[in-house]
Amino acid sequence: MTATYCTIVPPHVLDKLARSEDAALSGPARRTLQRDAYERTHRRLTTVLGAPAVAPPAAAAEGKPHRTVHDAEHRTDLPGKKVRGEGGEPGKDATVNRAYAGLGATFELFLKAYGRDSIDGAGLPLDATVHYDEQYNNAFWNGEQMVFGDGDGEIFLDFTIPIDVIGHELAHGVTQYTANLTYFGQPGALNESVSDVFGALIKQYTLGQTASEADWLIGAGLLAPRVTGVALRSMKAPGTAYDDDVLGKDPQPATMDDYVRTGRDNGGVHINSGIPNHAFYLAATALGGHAWERAGQVWYDVLTGGELKEDAMFAEFATLTVSAAKARFGDGSDELRAVAKAWEQVGVRTL
Predict the structure, then answer these.
(1) What DSSP element (H or E) covers 147?
(2) What residues are labeled active site?
(3) What is the pTM of this model?
(4) In angstroms, rounded to a whole number, what is the distance separating the alpha carbons of residues 284 and 241?
(5) How far apart are CA 6 and CA 321, in angstroms?
(6) What confidence tens digit (pLDDT) does each residue in 183-200 have?
(7) Cα(first)–Cα(last) distance of the chain, in Å?
(8) CA distances for 175 relative to 76, 122, 126, 198, 309, angstroms
(9) Cβ of 22: how many Cβ atoms within 10 Å?
(10) How far apart are CA 159 and CA 150, in angstroms?
């Protein structure tokens, strides 16, 4: 199992900001890129050398979350000062409270919808650190815990505001403990897409929304008022989340016709994830109702079924979703038809 360092804000967004002539924008972006590079290298070394095993505390009863939120106090030492443990009362810090609630919402969806006890399936404690660094424009999963920056207030606000950001990053942990998709090219884009899918489902589950009621945005509420945009990504309409004079235009494709070939961002993992994202949106909305119940179940079955290879391409993933829909819901089922048609609509052939 390889623990990958995964951030919610793609490098291409921060690169664009880092080139701004406005120091209030370029300064935080450059520092964030530097910090991300350090953390990414640190994660690689930890993976090679071996990280200490984290055993669930005795207090972590089966089927119950065990959350701990720390405050980095604008430094970078992890995990920082413990400020709230499982069962602790809400404090005055809204960021701490949001992180705690988001960890709980993620735990609840995986347990109630899929019978999964925490992200590893065995009651793994959920740890988060807030107020990381100064004006840090990102949130990440480092293979062991969640970390949230406060944003620079100019482009990004507090990274605990969107619950789907919390869910997205923790879902990287689920992938880490299951299919362990390689973080490059199409397998990497699938890794990112799976996190967007479950991030969106966690938001919808928390709000009690049906597929038709949901906004299908990732990171809504994260962008500051000055930004011309609504979110980091749109699963409903990839490529439309933002079009801003500083950030540029959302580069995500919705279909294989516009697949982006690039060596940056680990082969475009945050860009081409728009294609499987759109396929999930199409399948979920075609089926209607609560997306986590049918479309989400199919995606979860593929992620955890043992047949998804670490280096799976889009076509291999798509084929497995068709097989999973057939296995769970039957030949000729609405679920099977919706999943197969969704991949056809985005131009991914099933094998």
Answers:
(1) strand 146-148
(2) 169, 270
(3) 0.95
(4) 20
(5) 24
(6) 999 999 999 999 999 999
(7) 27
(8) 26, 14, 15, 11, 12
(9) 10
(10) 6
Structural Rg of the chain based on CA atoms: 19
| Token couple for 121 | 């399936």
Question: What angle in degrees, to the nearest 10, is found between the helix axes of 295-304 and 334-345?
Answer: 80
Per-residue pLDDT tens over the stretch 26-85: 999 999 999 999 998 877 765 444 444 444 444 457 899 999 999 999 999 999 999 999
d(CA 192, CA 123): 23
Residue 72 tokens, joined: 């980095």
User: Strands, E, within 224-316: which ranges?
Assistant: 233-234, 243-244, 248-249
Q: Tens of pLDDT along 146-184?
A: 999 999 999 999 999 999 999 999 999 999 999 999 999
Cβ neighbors of 91 (< 8 A, separation 6 or more) are 83, 84, 97
Reference 133, options 4, 265, 221, 7; nearest CA is 7
Cα→Cα distances 62→65, 91, 118, 175, 304, Å: 8, 26, 9, 21, 20
- Which residue in 109, 114, 105, 143 sits closest to 7, CA to CA? 143
CA angle, 139 as apex, 133 and 141 as ends, to 5°? 110
217 - beta bridge partners? 234
- Which H or E run contains 148? strand 146-148
- Give the pLDDT confidence score for residue 272 in this predicted structure: 98
